[in-house]
Amino acid sequence: MSKRKPKHTPNEAPRKKAGITSLVMRVFEQNPGVELTHKQIATLLDARDPRSRQVVFDSLSVLASKKAIQRINHHTFKLGEANHPLEGTISVTQKGAGFVTVEGHEKDIYISPSNIGQALNGDKVKVRVFKKGPSRDEGAITQVTERERIQFVGTIQIRQNDALMVPDNARSGIEIKIPTEKLNGAQHGEKALVKITVWPQSANKPYGEVLVRLGKSGNNETEMLSILYNQGINPVFPDAVMLEAEQVGLELDPKEVAQRRDFRPILTFTIDPFDAKDFDDAISFETLENGNIEVGVHIADVSHYVRPGSAMDQEALLRSNSVYLVDRVVPMLPEQLSNLACSLRPHEDKFAFSAVFEIDEKGKILREWFGKTVIHSDRRFTYEEAQEILEGKDGDHATELRKLDTLAKQYRSKRLKDGALSIESEEQRFKLDENGNPTGVVIKTSKDAHKLIEEFMLLANRKVAERLSPRKKGEENFPMIYRVHDTPDPSKMQLFAVFIEKFGHKVDIHDPLNIAKNLNELFEEIRGENEFSLVQSMAIRSMAKASYDTLNIGHYGLAFKHYTHFTSPIRRYADLVVHRILQEDLTTKKHKYGAELGAICQRISKNERKAAEAERESTKYFQSVFAHDFVGEVFEGTISGIAEHGMFVRMDDIYCEGMVPMMAIPGDRFYFDQEKFQIVGAKTKRTFQFGDRVKVKIDQVSTRKRQIDLDLVS
Question: Which string of DSSP letters, residue by residue, matches 255-316?
């Protein structure tokens, strides 16, 4: 005799009850502070029959017993005080999990992929913490309060009745369904910029439409456009901005020239990269009758051409900075200004905003002057040309260059003595063929010619900040944009200390006032060693990020109490605003900027991070293109990163970074030990940590994911 099939499997009823409880909880989370009756909850959940209503009431009783909700009387409830959702910003990992940062909350809140709901990377969200732990809390997203973005880039996949946009990776977007009539001509396999139009509560994917077709996936041009659009960076200027820019003439107005201090008879030159087109700054040099020298730091006078509220000004604020990818520059201002009218090109008269210093033979600044000028650059040096002269080769203006170099070294020495970090900038540059494909990698390091320009730019920035900072009591202060850098995070510095121990080095990180001094001693000790650049890179990652703010907390990395950005208004909006503020201080004393400066600081800091992300992704893309030719080859390298899903290795010879997936580490089942921040074998207890030297083989490369997969070689 056959047995009757049960209506519910043993686990089905509890699972249904758990589901109802979750829905009930969500109603309260969406209505914090509101008192709701059993009947209202049942109606909202469409529980009409007596049995369903009883399940709802049972769920209310369970939640009340757990103090998730508060019972007002027998039939009325409201959200428990401890369960009010927190508000924060979510960061989504490649694996689809998330971490919510809540202001004032010491630990980030972990969100599993199943609890992330419709939240996307960078969104502002409400989160309910349901599990507290010693190392991290865990929660669920209850609401997206503000979208970081609604436009995403991905590859179009045409299906039978609709299409799908698939992002390059989980962190950079989400799959978006596209109705056929919203494809706007996009073809299968093309990349496109897609806008989310609607995301129903019941749907696991949003719906959208194609805004811009970018071209076939895998093409360098397409990939660079994808990177830009994905960060919200438009490579094309609006027509109104271009029209305004085209009306800017190259001839200087004689009436304006007459009102400015004239530096044209004085020796002036620029030092820039060999491929530079936007010359922001120039240096003038004059020996005075009293034996002192006068050094002028002359900055392109962008504020003369870009007026507040104009189309160019609004677009410059929208962009906030120029973006430098491997094979192109996306300027903040149209080329008519950035490369022509404002650029301090050689043998042309130009308007500048200048900071001029009288300096004695010991490097002491005796007098300073700020104001509008007209200059004429007599010579354009590349960094390489200037460096050769500093190293002893004969060349134009060798005496002046070497005197400036001596002063720059004095200023740098004083900065380091005052507690500034001694970071040697290192930049990965690709050699590109005529088709824009990488043929080699070069690591550019900062030499004396770079440091010469750097020190005089730092001097101008610092002196402008000092002038515009709070003065005597009772005097009115100008609203101001500062470039600030906070003290190091102790937990990150502790991790850095563990990292360098792998190389046999130690650094005292317990006294915040001496961290910079101790780091500088470490850098000097390992200069010339293989691990030097990696250790410096890790030190930078361990530091707070510099940003813009109206509240001056000083600049830790430079050891300056007052610092701002004044020297690059062609490529940074902050500098343009500071020029305007300084001009107000010099003339009318009436400041036009006020409370809106705070919002400007937030915007330009945010856009600076987006530009940096685009630049990093551009580098990763070209790394993957370059590494394609080395699939199957073995390289020595250093572990440069540890994560739950594997370890990153920077390869010595090709300077590219790839990842050994956790599952691909041979010889054991390995896991990530978060406490010790290392990868450990479950049986063998073999460990992998930051700084370990390993051999790896390039297994496969994905330019679409900007990813290099490595195998560990015994």
Answer: HHHHTSEE-TTS-EEEEE-TT-----EEEEEEE-TTS-EEEEEEEE-HHHHS-TTSHHHHHH
Quick one: pLDDT at residue 13?
36
Q: Which two tokens stand for residue 43?
A: 């109606």
Asked whether the predicted pLDDT for residue 5 surpasses 50, the reply is no
Per-residue pLDDT at 12:
34
User: Would you say 335 and 570 are in contact if contact means Cβ atoms under 8 Å apart?
Assistant: no
**Residue 372: both structure tokens together:** 């509008």
CA dihedral 66, 71, 74, 75 (to 10 degrees): -100
- Up-side HSE of residue 173: CA atoms within 13 Å toward CB? 29
First vs last Cα of the chain: how many Å apart? 63
pLDDT of residue 6: 29
The residue type of 156 is: I
What pTM value is reported for the model?
0.83
Give the integer Cα–Cα distance in Å for 13 and 18: 9
Residues 156-198 pLDDT 10s = 999 988 899 998 776 778 899 999 999 999 999 999 999 999 9
CA–CA distance, 541 with 200 (Å, rounded to integer)? 39
Q: Say whether 358 sits in a helix, a strand or coil.
A: strand
**Residue from 151, 155, 177 nearest 166 by CA:** 155
Note the residue count of the chain. 714
The one-letter code for the residue type at 227 is: I
Distance CA 454, CA 239 (A): 36
The token duo for 36 is 């709701």
Q: pLDDT digit string (tens) for 432-449? A: 999 899 999 988 888 999
| Residue 279, pLDDT above cutoff 90 | yes
Rounded percentage of the chain residues whose pLDDT exceeds 70: 95
What's the mean pLDDT when you consider all of the chain? 89
- DSSP assignment of 571-588: TBHHHHHHHHHHHHHHTT
Helices (H), 339-397: 383-390
Give me the residues paired with residue 359 across strands: 293, 365
The answer to whether the beta carbons of residues 510 and 614 sit under 8 Å apart is no
Cα separation, 663 vs 661, whole angstroms: 5
Residue 672 in tokens: 């990530």
Average pLDDT, integer, range 705-713: 93
Mapping DSSP onto H, E and C, the string for 383-395 reads: HHHHHHHHCCCCC
Instruction: Decide if 442 contacts 512 (C-beta within 8 A).
Output: no
Q: Are 91 and 85 in contact (CB under 8 A)?
A: no
Bigger pLDDT: 357 vs 34: 357
Q: Do 179 and 154 meet the contact criterion of CB atoms below 8 Å apart?
A: no
Catalogue all structural domains in the chain, each as residue range(s) with its CATH number. 12-82 (1.10.10.10), 85-146 (2.40.50.140), 151-217 (2.40.50.700), 240-401 (no CATH), 450-617 (no CATH), 631-713 (2.40.50.140)
Residues 581-617: pLDDT tens digits?
999 999 987 878 888 999 999 999 999 999 999 999 9
Q: Please tell me the distance from the alpha carbon of residue 85 to that of residue 91, in angstroms, as a whole number.
A: 17
Q: Is pLDDT above 90 for 366?
A: yes
